[in-house]
Amino acid sequence: MPDVQRAQVLAYRIAAHGLHRAGTDPAALAVLDLGVQDVGGRATASLAVAARTGSAALSLEDDERFTLAWTHRGAPHYHRASEFPGLLPALFPVDDADALARLGWRPAEAEAAGMPAREILLTAARSLRKAVGHAMTKGAASAAVTRLVPDALSRWCRGCQATHIHEQLMRLAAPLAGLALVPGASPATLVPVPGRPRIPAEADVPGATGTVQCYLRLHGPATAGEAAGFVGSTRAIVAGQLWPGDLAEVRVEGRTAHLPADRLAELEHPPEPDLVRLLPPGDPYLQARDRALLVPEKARQQELWRVLGNPGALLADGEIAGTWRAKASGRRLEITVDPFRPLPRSVRARVEAEAELVAAVRGQDKVAVRWPGS
Prior knowledge:
Blueprint: E1 3-4, H1 6-16, E2 36-37, H2 44-53, E3 66-70, E4 76-80, H3 84-91, H4 96-103, H5 107-113, H6 117-131, E5 136-137, H7 138-146, E6 154-157, E7 162-165, H8 167-176, E8 179-181, E9 189-192, H9 205-219, H10 224-231, H11 235-241, E10 247-252, E11 255-260, H12 264-268, E12 276-279, H13 291-294, H14 298-304, E13 312-316, E14 319-329, E15 332-339, H15 345-362, E16 366-370
Parallel strand pairs: 1-10, 15-16
Antiparallel strand pairs: 2-4, 3-4, 5-9, 6-7, 8-9, 10-11, 12-13, 13-14, 14-15
Helix pairs in contact: 2-15, 3-9, 6-8, 9-10, 10-11
């Protein structure tokens, strides 16, 4: 079993994520094989694309080649529109235990509903398909579908001060019902996708396995538990039913992990990560579940991955070297960088250049970078 160093793993992932900027077409980016998460209101998906293409002219939000929908873990992700119909069966749980894990429900909750967990998901999907025949805000769609589903599928919501369909159930059922999200809409707005595909009758196990394989390709070497964390299931289900074949086993930092065997040579000899990037909150690179490998210091992890309001990450020479936040004032953007360690002047100059790209993506004419003490 080969032993690989942490620096090799990070360099491999940086290359696998396309952060060396080898191409300019967002549809060709490897991260779109898994999907690019959208953190609403901050152009994060377009910033993730710009970090990989170096261009501010390419926007997932305005490109009809991409579909935004609640997919992995019920979070909004952009996917290639041509691949979206085929993704839906791969999102359907392989069994009732998988459905409970993805919903975050206890078995007693499914028993109270009087139906198996996968049937709960199908019931919600059928009701959503009936309720949402045109663009509807999330609130309106929730109210409409709540009137159709059995009472046991609804919950009292303290924030809304109302009873409505369980939030995660609605998020997981919406894509199965052929519903996407309108990019940039506030509040969140659901809309039927063109040619509205049928609700999957059963799980696409090879497709779901392909999702796990893609995770291992982008975020590997990784474990079954880490892949399960991304898709929203359990380690036992991923390892027992969705684990790909033809994987290479390696040892990283004293633990065993896997990646596709055809990527082993790239892992052993990755290109030097001599680059500086301002990664947005929710960037695909930050979606790896082994956060301690990305950022070993616990306190720094807490700065980067918060419950709400995550900052962006400064990637410099193979390491996450700090965080950044942006504040707009008219046509001017101010980016505040909080480095984890002192940075050479050359790195700071490259951060300033990347800040210009961030401002261009966000539509601001001027940008100022603020450093500690400035």
